[in-house]
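Sharing a chain and its predicted structure for anyone who wants a worked example. Both blocks are below, sequence first, tokens second.
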Amino acid sequence: MKKLRIFGFLFVVILVMGVAGATRWKAVTTLNIDYDEDDYLRAAQQYTAIIRSGKLSGFLETNYRPEHPSFAKIVLGISLLSDPEKPLTPDHPTSAGPNQYLARDLLRTDRVTNAIFGIITAGLLALVNPLAGLLLAVHAWTIKYVSQIMLEAIPAFASLLCVFSYVLWKKKQQTRISGWLVTSAIFLGITAASKYLYGIVGIAILVDWWIDAAKAGGWKRTFRNILFWGLLGAAIFFLLNPYLWPDPVGRLNESILYHSAYAQGASEVENAQFPIWQQFVWLSTSPLMWQADAFYFSIDPIIAILAALGLVTTWQKHRVYALWLIIALFFLLIWPTKWPQYLVTLSAPLCLSASEGINTILIAPIRNWILRIKGRKNTKVARQKSEFRQALPWLIPGLISFAIFTLVPLFYQLAVSLTDFNSVSIKDGLNGGIWREVWGGITGQIEVAAQNFPYRSKEVHYLGLSNFKPVFDYLSEQMVLFINILWTVLSVALQTLLGLITALILWQRGVKLKRAWQSLFILPWAIPEMIGALMWVNIFAPEIGWLSLAAQKYGGGMPFSFLLGWENSPSMWLAILLISGVWYGFPFMMLAATAGLKMMPKESFDAAQIDGANALQTFKYITWPLLYPLLIPAIIIRGIFAFNQFYLFQAFQIGTGTLATLSYNFFNPSGFFINGQFAVSAVINIITVVILIGFVILFNRWSKADQGVTYA
């Protein structure tokens, strides 16, 4: 049986590699020539020429595009030895467009070389988790950049093998130096020698190492192992980069400093004007938008969502991979250049976390459901009909109200979304045209009409579900959905943090005028939202706002002058909106936290004080576990309000900031967009409802809010 399982597991790994091979071969043979491919093909040709000439001293002076180390370029050069010699690819500046005249046979060879490393990487991840390997095999961003002449495939393979070897060394519970630790160090050196950015994996391993050492307390032996591992990795790094040998310090310094200068002065970076969160944008999209025929399909946004859902489980099962994902993502957020190929640095742990997300929301519930069915006793519980009959009169008014004010409007919106209802056909629609077309379409009496957007027909027509795909594509391509989710997460997190800190400060003994301070902090919440939004517009409005007028009068050195010009920077306008949104929303979280603090038993804090717990330990082990379940409903409420934020974005004239503003501006006959498109507005509303229902269910499940305070 054990051998059968091993053969089955190996078969699955081979199957994953087969899928990875199919997806990467299609990309190799289909993808258009991209930026940088001419640069790395030229670098590979130079190394091919050095090897063929036999003058190996050329390695000491050759490294085209020295901002990146040379090992991956050398490997690409070795792969060209079997190809006929061709003229050297011309030297073009980094701002030049893709060179469409590259030698096709050389292009194919180096692309295949990178793709092979990409296939092996997917198979290696499948050894950790077969589902994760399958997700990596179909991850479109990874497919693209390991199937072109880029420097991503080799360091992606080496970084995964570095972590893989380190984990095997840990599993054997070895505290001494062994073969797996040596292997990890070697591939750490190969990773850094291929592309500096991928060396982030070493930081993740060091943090994981430090956590284990802090628990065990064995710092002396741990330090010895870390020193050996780091020195061996550094030695491999220099050994595989002969260009550094003549002047290691000078050339390494020049290579590393290039990136900061490039980020600040390169025209392509300045023209791109990517915001600080651009990597989240790439995660929520896919290269399918650039060249659909190069990929069979793309589920990259789904993988990103699943990875977020599975991050906690990944931390519990594969902590070093979770650290790798978190540290790499944080680094990419602060790294000034935001190119999409950098996603490959974290695609392996991303897919592993996504596989755990699938297990959390799908596989585990199904498994538990099957076990419950098998273990269910054949006992029948008699329904207490009398109690139900007694409660029924009290339930009926609530059910009627729920149906009238919730279900009817929702079904009406759903019906409108199936049509082309617009401001021109409003007379027909309100006279029964909507129900006529929807009922006829559902029963098959009316065929789906073909209408061009924007809809301007005088009569309502049945369109079925044909509205949903273009609207969802628009939300994805214009990043409306992403910005909406990002805004919700950041604003609610900051509101919760500020509200909790304020409540904790006012909760302390000795604070004078507590009620006065609470009343002062509640004022923003008491102001109507539109009035508050207009107040912030008056402060930050370009040229005529209070801040701009103050800067004109007192000079640019005044406080908060760095916020001027926010309208020209996506990162800055998000910061301005967060300032306004947090000001408005934190009082609610403060009140929720204050109510929770008042309900806490004083005996627990007295016991902690007797045991000698400090303030941080008391908060970590008593205050937060007891307060957390009580804050969850408040967080859910603020999350729904933030997701549906309207007045703030509308006042700042950001008509695509949230789904609510977009829906209104499609609905409004005098809005920012193509006006009076009631059907499109209804589609957006339906999508909003579905997302919010999913958010509430998943957040309740993830936070265990239904368990109350019993688990604290």
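Comments welcome. DSSP finds 30 helices and no strands in the chain.
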